[in-house]
Amino acid sequence: GENVEQHPSTLSVQEGDSAVIKCTYSDSASNYFPWYKQELGKGPQLIIDIRSNVGEKKDQRIAVTLNKTAKHFSLHITETQPEDSAVYFCAATATTSGTYKYIFGTGTRLKVLA
Amino acid sequence: NAGVTQTPKFQVLKTGQSMTLQCAQDMNHNSMYWYRQDPGMGLRLIYYSASEGTTDKGEVPNGYNVSRLNKREFSLRLESAAPSQTSVYFCASSPLGGTATGELFFGEGSRLTVL
Q1: Which site among A104, A108, A109 would you substitute to test the B interface, given the most B Cβ atoms closer than 10 Å to its Cβ?
Q2: B37 in Cβ contact with A87 (< 8 Å)
Q3: Which residues pair with B90 in a beta bridge?
């Protein structure tokens, strides 16, 4: 079935450094790739998303890139801050009988060290 | 603005007991979803409802049933709980669905322990 692989599972960076999280997907019909941030004890929240007709999207310190040919997409966080510490999930859409579902990666625990 | 509300937040069950997790959204969204979150496995889709009156299986539906009671509410039922169903359950909703895609809005989760 469809799946999304996410790496690394844990990532520690010094405050001010950049962090990169990578995902690959299997369903070539996927057309929407969101990234979610989950803080301790909370539900995931969307931080940025990209559609298949766009190669890159930026929002202040975060950016997402998409390579449709290789079926992978990445989250880039620059100038990391302690409040960026959280679990990050990528997701891709997958189709079943014309209906889209969201398949999530296994998550990356990001620790920003002060 | 409440968003997506899940109840209960915590529950402990014994093996074989049944229970229902409730979810309600006040955003007039069409689609609703139930996910479970387990360490190292991310979020896995149990069931979803693309619109009022329809439900479909996700990746891990065995041992669960759902009801889309109306546009606002989507409940998840465990008929005979097993220790393997110990997990954190998240309900989510989306204004879109079907052939359109967009942001998922998540509740704060329900932590279930089955002894």
Answers
A1: A104
A2: no
A3: B35
DSSP code for B59: S
List CB contacts (< 8 A) between A37 and chain B.
none
**Helix %, strand %, coil % of chain A (to 5):** 5, 60, 35
DSSP letter assigned to residue B73: B
Q: Which tokens belong to B7?
A: 């109840």
Four-CA torsion B25, B31, B32, B33, nearest 10 degrees: -150
Supply the pLDDT for residue A4.
Answer: 94
Q: How far is CA B21 from the centre of its chain?
A: 7
Helix count and strand count (H, E) for chain B: 0, 11
Residues of B in Cβ contact (< 8 Å) with A9: 40
Tell me the mean pLDDT per 10 residues along chain B, length 115: 91 97 95 92 91 89 95 96 97 79 90 97
Q: Where are the beta strands (DSSP E) in A60-113?
A: 62-67, 72-77, 86-96, 99-104, 108-113
Structure tokens at A39: 């803080």
* Residues of chain A found within 8 Å of residue B9, distances taken between Cβ atoms: none
- CB count within 10 Å of CB B29 equals 21
| Mean pLDDT within A77-96 | 92
Please, are residues A31 and A51 in contact by the beta-carbon 8 Å criterion? Answer: yes
